[in-house]
Amino acid sequence: MPSPATAWPWTRSSWSLSKLETYSVHIVEHFGLARFFHTVHGSAHDGTNADKPDLIAHILQAEPLDPVRTVTIGDRSHDIAGARANGIMSLGVLWGFGDRKELADAGADEIVERPSDLAAAVDRLLQDEVLSAPEGRLSCATPRRPLPVAADCREWKPS
Question: Which CATH class is domain 11-136?
Answer without folding.
Answer: alpha beta
